[in-house]
Amino acid sequence: MYAPINTTTIGGSVSSKADEKALVERLQRIPLFSGTTKKQRVALARLGKIVNWKDGNVGVTEGSKGVAFFLILDGAVEVTRNGQVLDQLRPGGFFGEVGLLTGAPRNATVTAIDASTLFVLGRPAFSAAVKSDPDIALRLMAAMAERQPANG
Asked: Alpha carbon 13 to chain centroid distance?
């Protein structure tokens, strides 16, 4: 399934080359990042942080400003809108891609339903990556366009 990632550097970046490699592989499986090059995914992995959420922690609140992308490495979260459960996400699940790209308000609340470890890529770090390699933005726009339903 997924290569394990050592999450002992909570609040910091990925700690080893093996962990970085595993994270880069996970990013490749996410539609938004699948069209990026390995070099670009490595750069993004290095810019993100590893965080822990305790069971019950509300990590993202519906209506708040979208400022980051989240990838679940371990644990589980529940996604709700207007108090209604929409989904439960487990390792490999992700959310916040629209917020990462646009800063649009969150359309759901995300709460840990188990102790969870997540990779977080914030907008400032993402913006720095795009400024240093504008091709990242073009590849992400292409990925988003492919996911949109055809007009008409």
From this structure: 14
CA distances from 120 to 47, 83, 84, 147 (A): 9, 24, 25, 22
Which residue, 34, 83, 41, 43, is CA-closest to 61? 83
Residue reference for tokens 């993202």: 60
Please list the helix, strand and coil fractions of the chain in percent, rounded to the nearest 5, in that order: 35, 25, 40
Annotated domain spans of the chain: 17-147
Q: How far apart are CA 89 and CA 67, in angstroms?
A: 19
Which residue bears the tokens 């970085």? 20
Say whether pLDDT at 6 is over 70.
no
User: In the CATH hierarchy, which top-level class contains the domain 17-147?
Assistant: mainly beta
pLDDT in tens, 51-79: 999 999 999 999 999 889 999 999 999 99
**Could you tell me the pTM of the whole model?**
0.83
